[in-house]
Design goal:
By secondary structure, the protein is of the alpha/beta class. It is built from nine helices and twelve strands. The longest helix has 28 residues. A hairpin with a 4-residue loop joins strand 1 and strand 2.
Length: 294
C-alpha cells in the first residue's frame, strides 16, 4: 500500500465523486480510478459502491476511513518536523561551559533563544572547561562550548567577552583593605584553583600571574566549579584568582579585589567548522545579536 493510494482513497471518500476528487488531487479521473482499483485488490475488499449516479463507501471503506486520516495527519506532522528542522526552527544544541563567564553568556543566550526560536532547545553541560570543550566538540559529543582563545584552526569561534582578573579573598583577610592588587601581593598566599584536568583558562592565568611576579603558587585546594571555589574562599581555605564575571556571584564572607597587571582573557564560543546543523547556526545568529560586555 502506497501513501498516494491512501490520498486517493481519502479524496474520493470525502468528495464521494471521482471527478471532484481528481480535481482536488490535480490528476485525471482515469489514473485516480486505477489507483482505487489497485488499492482494493491489495486490500482484498471493495471500498466503494459505484453507480452511474453515485459513489458510496462500503463497510470496508468506512472502516478504512479513520486509520487513513490518522496516517495522513501523521505524515503532515512528519513533514512539518523535517521542514522546521531543516530550516533550523527546531532541534537540540548542546553547549559545554565552566566558570562564571560561561554562566553569564549562556544564561543570556538561553533567554534570547527562547524568545526568538522556542523550538530550539539549548542543552547546557556545566562544569565542562575550555580544554574539555575542545575535545568534546572535536569528537562530535558537543555542538559548541565556551573556551579561551586561541584555539586550533579546526574550530570556528565567536568572541563573547574579554575578562579581566580579580582576586576573591575571605572577609578579614590582610588584603581586604586594598582597592587593587598587584601579582606580587599574592606571594606567600594559599590559593584555591580549578583542577588541572579541566583545562581551565583561569587556572592557567593564575599560574601566569604568579610566574610574572617571580614566585610559584602554593595550592591549598582544588574546586570543580565557581561556587565550590568561592565557598572554600569564604571558609578561609585560601584566596583565588577569578574572572571579573565572578563578581556577580554573591557568597557570604567573600570580597573581590581587582588585580592590576594580569592578562585580559578573550572568551569565545567555539564549534566545529564543518558542523552545518541548521539549529546550531540559528543559535549563533541569536548570539551575534546579543550585546557584548567588555
Amino acid at each position: 500500500m502506497e501513501f498516494r493510494q491512501l490520498q486517493a482513497f481519502l479524496a474520493v471518500a470525502e468528495e464521494l465523486h471521482f471527478g471532484r476528487a481528481a480535481e482536488r488531487l490535480h490528476i485525471a479521473q482515469s489514473p485516480l480510478s486505477q489507483m482505487i482499483r489497485t488499492l482494493e485488490r491489495e486490500l482484498g475488499a471493495r471500498l466503494f459502491e459505484r453507480t452511474t449516479r453515485s459513489v458510496q463507501l462500503t463497510a470496508a471503506g468506512t472502516a478504512l476511513l479513520a486509520p487513513a486520516r490518522v496516517i495522513a495527519a501523521q505524515l503532515q506532522v512528519a513533514r512539518a518536523v523535517v521542514r522546521s528542522t531543516a530550516a533550523g526552527e527546531t532541534g537540540v544544541v548542546s553547549a559545554g561551559f565552566g566558570g562564571a563567564s560561561g554562566y553569564a553568556v549562556l544564561s543570556e543566550l538561553t533567554r534570547a533563544l527562547a524568545d526568538r526560536h522556542p523550538g530550539i532547545e539549548l542543552d547546557l553541560r556545566p562544569q565542562t572547561y575550555s580544554g574539555e570543550v575542545l575535545d568534546l566538540v572535536a569528537q562530535g559529543l558537543l555542538d559548541m562550548g565556551i573556551v579561551g582563545l586561541p584555539v586550533p584552526g579546526d574550530f570556528a569561534t565567536e568572541t563573547v567577552r574579554h575578562e579581566s582578573l580579580m582576586v576573591a579573598v575571605p572577609a578579614g583577610h590582610r588584603l581586604t583593605d586594598r582597592d587593587t592588587l598587584e601579582p606580587g601581593d599574592l606571594a606567600g598566599e594559599r590559593l584555591v584553583v580549578y583542577p588541572a584536568a579541566h583545562g581551565s583558562l583561569v587556572r592557567d592565568a593564575t599560574f601566569t600571574v604568579c610566574a610574572s611576579a617571580g614566585f610559584a603558587p602554593t595550592i591549598a585546594r582544588e574546586a570543580p566549579d565557581p561556587y565550590s571555589l568561592l565557598a572554600l574562599v569564604g571558609a578561609g581555605v585560601g584566596i583565588a584568582v577569578v574572572v571579573s564575571s565572578t563578581a556577580h556571584i554573591t557568597v557570604d564572607g567573600v570580597q573581590y579585589i581587582p588585580l592590576d597587571g594580569g592578562p585580559v582573557l578573550p572568551i569565545a564560543l567555539a564549534w566545529r567548522r564543518d558542523n552545518i546543523a541548521p539549529a546550531l547556526h540559528r543559535v549563533l545568529e541569536v548570539l551575534r545579536g546579543l550585546p557584548r560586555p567588555r
